[in-house]
Amino acid sequence: MEGFECKFYRNDGTYDTPEWVEIPLVGDLRCPMSFEEVKVMLRKMAGWTATEPGAANLEFSFDTVWDNTDEDFQTLLAAFLGRTAIEFQALTGDIEVAGSQGPRATCKILRFDRGEPVGGVVTAAVTIKPCISDHPPEWTEIEA
Q: Under the phi-then-psi rule, with left for phi > 0, alpha for psi from -120 to 50, and beta for the rest, what region is 45?
């Protein structure tokens, strides 16, 4: 699988009746997932500290072209400025293709850093993380 085959979506519908819209202006998408480390000390560990996974962390981050005429860009910028939640999904393939998989989460945009290189186009570095929601983040796989 090549990175360009992966897709990043925003939901214009509801959680139960989603209307997924691909965001094609996304550059290299990074989607780190990790667990907080919970240290456990038990006598049966004979003086050794054990580490177990605790709360999960998820983030979507990417660079995009600063394009005031693009609907997706305007939606993302408005959500950032308004501190508004949007549901996102990052998949390994098209949302219509069985087997595509990845995280789905309701998030808020926490960073929208504008870059203005003298020798290039204006860009935005965007960071998105899960927020309080009735639907916690989940791993999804598109079924046949």
A: alpha
Query: Two tokens at 33?
Result: 């997932």
d(CA 141, CA 126): 25
Query: Which residue bears the tokens 């098209």?
Result: 94
pTM metric for this prediction: 0.89
Torsion angle in degrees (nearest 10) through CA of 72, 73, 79, 81: -160
Candidates 1.10.238, 4.10.410, 1.25.40, 2.30.30; CATH matching 3-141: 4.10.410
Residue pLDDT, tens place only, 4-50: 889 999 999 999 999 999 999 999 999 999 999 999 999 998 989 99
